[in-house]
Amino acid sequence: MTLTTTAAVCHQPDEPLRLEQVQLSDLQDDEVLVKITATGVCHMDIEGREMLPAPSIQGHEGVGIVQEIGAAVGSVKPGDRVVMSYAWCGRCHSCEHHQPYHCDDSWDVTFSGGRLDGSDTVTQNGKRVSAAFFQQSSFAQHAICSERNLVCVDSTLTDARLAAFPCGILTGAGIVCEQFALQPGNSLAVFGTGAVGLAAIMAAKKLGVSPVIAVDINDERLELASGLGATHVIDAKEGKVPERIQELCGRGAGFSIDTTGNALAFNNAIECLSPGGRMAACILPSPMEEFTFKPFQLFVKSLSLEGVSFGRAVARELVPKLVAWHEAGEFPVERLIREYNFEDINQACQDSLAGVAIKPVLKMPD
Questions:
Q1: pTM for this one?
Q2: Which of 73, 238, 304, 318 fits a 20 to 30 Å CA distance from 180?
Q3: What Cα–Cα distance (Å) separates residue 128 from each residue in 57, 111, 131, 132, 273?
Q4: Burial track 187-202 (b if 16+ CB lie within 10 A, e otherwise)
């Protein structure tokens, strides 16, 4: 049975989103209808306006209550509280070998605007809407989601706090916990203190990593990073960043993360490493600068330059762990969140782009 709901629809990438009525299609066997109670706002949601044909619906950090399930769904039931994370096909080699973050169909399942079979999850007055963003499109009061995306949660945390975890926070913590698998005695330099960078810093503190060095040009963000676990902070405006990191670490950092998408920071994140070091480039795919760097350093120091896909985190495993850390007071994600009502979504997006809000979260009306 077709359901009509309210969604934030993008009609042109450079225009404000409009709250409008749309229609959700019938569920397929492996899908779940979720009543959205809160959803995070990520830079990818804003970039996604350029990546999906208009009209479109973004949103990929939903939290809500299961309303209805498809015939083959067995892991959740109506009434369950769920976090909606990234999408994966469930049938390729990587997915079958417990590596959904390396899904062969990751691009299509995330950005195609519909299901992998080409069908639509959302229409408006009989016309196609590009949706199924991360197989959810959670900028709406209801969303169709693949069962695979869902993480059941048993927590006293508010929906707004839970909505901070599914993507950026998961990725930053995932790089530290899973991709790098850091341990006490490791050293880490984090370039950029947005949601991803600060999540990495909080996770590194939890794991006993030291030193943890935060690099940025924003004094307030650097102060926050210090309060969240950075043992040292560096104002990149003062220059000589690699040299200062090498001095702090003795021979350079063992690991670095670039979350900035800035060419100078990208090169600094390579140059600051010690021999055998590893750098993770965690930046949006579009738009971004064309980076140039001298690969000679990679050869001389035997460095590893790595891409990032959700920090190699399996959401059903890492999200509950991060929530438990937060409940124990060891992962203070609340210091990153700014809450907005759903009707203020355009302000939330503007504040995110301006750096006013580190992790905007939208609260849906009752």
A1: 0.96
A2: 238
A3: 11, 15, 9, 12, 49
A4: bbbbbbbbbbbbbbbb
